[in-house]
Specification:
Elements: H1 7-12, H2 16-35, H3 43-50, H4 54-60, H5 64-88, H6 92-105, H7 107-115, H8 119-133, H9 149-169, H10 176-193
Helix pairs in contact: 2-3, 2-5, 2-7, 5-6, 5-8, 6-10, 7-9, 8-9, 9-10
Length: 194
Amino acid sequence: MTHISTASTRQRSVDPRVERSRAALRSALLELLEERAYDAITIRDVCARARTGYATYFRHYSDKAALLDDLAAVAIGELLGHAMPVLYSADAHTACVALCSYVDERRLLWAALLTGGAGGILRGEFVRQARRAAPKRKLRGRSRSRLPADLAVVFGVSGLIEVLAWWLEHRSECTVTEVAEFLDRLVVGPIMRI
């Protein structure tokens, strides 16, 4: 993904107008993702929804992917902050329930990001951030395993994304607790047993 506006760039920005413009553009993209696939959204669509000028857009982002990156980077970091402890927890089920509750509380955002046509694009960012976060701690039960830690992270994040995307598409069929059970049985448990 293109990285033009990172969290550190946003933190250095002190001009409230810049922050308002970026927030409006991120919000517009999120709204549009709830309506149609990412590939069907144009920069002009985003500008129209955000009520900003086309030239203003390019003062903040180099292309549409850069805006998606900006929108997703913070959200992914927050989700991984809840997801990574699942792999290190002695009580994986409780950790899975906490993770699913977090997603449920922000379901519009995650439904748009994971099922709104941008899910494939975001998977790479999820894995990149998870790899960066993973070396800081040792996976529970990993001392005897021949499974490379990097593969466990990639598989775990990919499985997490798939379970959450499925749930967000079939939300009325499952409760938070049920999805946490699926996540524990399909993703976390198998990784921990290896």
